[in-house]
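Data follows
____________
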Amino acid sequence: MKGWSGRYLYVDLSKKKFHYVDIPVDVLRNFIGGRGLAVKLLWDLNPVGVDPLSPDNHLVLATGPLTGYPLPSSGKLQIASKSPLTGGYGDGNIGARAAVELRKLGVDAVVIGGKAEKPTILYLTCEGVEFRDGSDYWGLTTKDAEERLKKELGGGVSVLSIGPGGERLVKYATVLSELGRSAGRPGMGAVMGSKNLKAVAIKGCSMPEPASVEELVNLGAEAYRKIKESPAYEFWCRQGTMGTIEWSQKNSCLPSYNFSEGVFEYWEGIDGYIMESMKVRVKACPNCNMPCGNVVKYVTYTDAGEAELDYENVAMLGSNIGLAPLNKVSHINVLADLYGIDTISLGSAIGYSMELSEKGLLKERIEWGDYSRIKELVRQIAYREGLGDLLAEGVAAMAERIGGDAWKYAIHVKRLEVSAYDCHAAPGMALAYGTSPIGAHHKDAWFIATEVRMGRFEYTAEKVERLVWLQNIRGGMFESLTTCRLPWVEVGLSLDYYPRLLTAATGYTYTWDTIHEVADRIYALVRAFWVREYAAAGLRWDHSMDMPPAKWFVQPLTKGPLKGAKLDSGGYTKMLMHYYALRGWDERGIPKRSTLERLGLGYAVSQLESLGVGLS
């Protein structure tokens, strides 16, 4: 076997034991790695209907057959589990040295089950697993835990850790590495916390051998060269994703005041040019020559430090909660990273509480842009104190507990808070959020730029067809290889490099037809996982699960160039039904029997039917 290691490491925290499990070649070929391998392992290993915070739920760390090789932006790792926030499939990728070190362990994935008796640190090496006492680390921020652990274990060690948010089971707690890299929006940090797992330290020894070293190296070198020759390269290296603040403002999709508007009056105080004036250095993922980790030095009247910024963080902790300028946003971002909390869901929960307060649906008074109050709310969320205990549950749970009209202002899909693009005038992007396999997230289909080119108010079959293609590339291929999509998205690196690189790594011939088939298989199994878990909980699945927030349909924009815009329910539903048809799913959004069987997922048919899910 080339390109893959052909096995995964299973760690049982309850018994303090571990063993290696062979992965059949056909599983690797059919799912590739990363997300594909993760959902297959979770389908097979998780008890049906398992409580996400129970010892029986598994946490999967998965690489792909390109991870760590000398090719553009190959330093990615997938972290997946059943989500405590959504109750469905959850994952996130992280760009960090830990991805390369895991790959060098001689495994394609690490699966963690059980629950440790006391706070524990896993130390993974090529010799096996060491279960280290983490009691002295419990309560530390992600920064302090990682720095202390690296000092204790010595050079060459990479660390994935949780902060107080994960320890206290904040439903959108994440896993952090390298003081600013975060993964697992749907609560992967809470899964670690539920297992008393403070951190995973990794030190590998050797990479798996590719099928064709010469071809892989030559293609990688050529791709690196093409990236630097791109006309977009210089500006990207200056601003990275922060250039999107200005773009979103001009295109009226910058989330403002809990997604009530698409423009923000103080946008110039949080944009990429302000960031450039504050920037002190950049950070990059392993094997990346187009770094996007812009580190700024900030000072406020009460706080000072350094923060790694990107668009999503700044939009959700800036315009969405009415906060500016960038120095204040930077500090809130740092707090989220230290506590191990997702910045997107955090900005949504705070913005939601502000709107509810404004409308008299929440008795506590929380003003837009109140910096001191925001700081205190972040701390309360992390430690589940006062109002923070409610906000720590996420927007959907907040709406349920508050009751009344609160649901009208809750911005989520399938209980995952929407990331930073307002969709009052973007039905295609709304559909991307609606059908994202983890809930409302942009990584599977950043459709908004395509939509600007195709027309903002069009509800067309062409948009849906383009969306499915985009999901298959971004969420199917890139999330499984596992490599970063930004060389293609931002500087125009040809997609044709990727099947060639995959073939060079594994020795199997991958074409666009086979890659799209793999992507279809992954999306079908992820959706079957959601349906299975909801059915086990006694919940009936239908197309309402894929509907975007009510606000976008009923409350029009009141500012900006698209003033008056809102989504059309009939047009959106028509697009959604066409999406289902293209995927081979029925009108409920459930994969048809013929689709599952065609994709080699017959085992999903029998399991769904045993739960009373009728398949078309």
The mean pLDDT is 97. The first helix runs from residue 25 to 31. The longest strand covers residues 76-82.
